[in-house]
Amino acid sequence: MLLKENVRIPEGTLFGSGGIRNEWLPGHHDFISLCEQKGGKLRYSGSFVADFHQILTYGGIYCYPAARGGKPEGKLRLVFEANPIGFIAKQAGGAISDGTQDLLTVLPEKPDHRTPIYVGSKSLIDAAESCMKEHN
């Protein structure tokens, strides 16, 4: 149900990241540190849709990164979770990435293709990709 016309993601300062902090890869850890240094406010409930709604309303970024150990390919599914939210984000002036590329351009390799995800304000997606690039 459309609750508001012409929704645009503001730049904002909210950030939320899933995963276990000590399993984050260095690029993601650096990105979250950057968000904290710039006065970002943590908003993470563990509910992807609820957390993205906050980003859509107030701006910022939602992340579920690749991680050491159990989730090197990420947790969320490209077709069923990332792409639908990414489509909404792009329509609202935001962006979605796996940390290196636009997720809406990735072709799924299997029905449950999993991926890292960064979705929200365009400038924060760019900053996340820069942090990932520094460590690759």
Features:
five-stranded mixed sheet, 4 helices, globular, 37% helix, 136 residues, single chain, D-Maltodextrin-Binding Protein, domain 2, two-stranded antiparallel sheet, alpha/beta
Would you kindly provide a written description of the structure presented here, covering whatever features stand out?
- The structure is a single chain.
- This protein is of the alpha/beta class and 136 residues long.
- The chain has one domain: D-Maltodextrin-Binding Protein, domain 2, CATH 3.40.190.
- It is built from four helices and seven strands.
- Strands 2-1-3-7-5 form a five-stranded mixed sheet, sandwiched between helices. A two-stranded antiparallel sheet has the order 4-6.
- Helix 1 packs across helix 4 (122-134).
- The longest helix has 14 residues, at 78-91.
- It is globular and about 40 Å long.
- The relative contact order is 0.22.
Question: TL;DR?
Answer:
The chain has four helices and seven strands, in the order E-H-E-H-E-E-H-E-E-E-H.
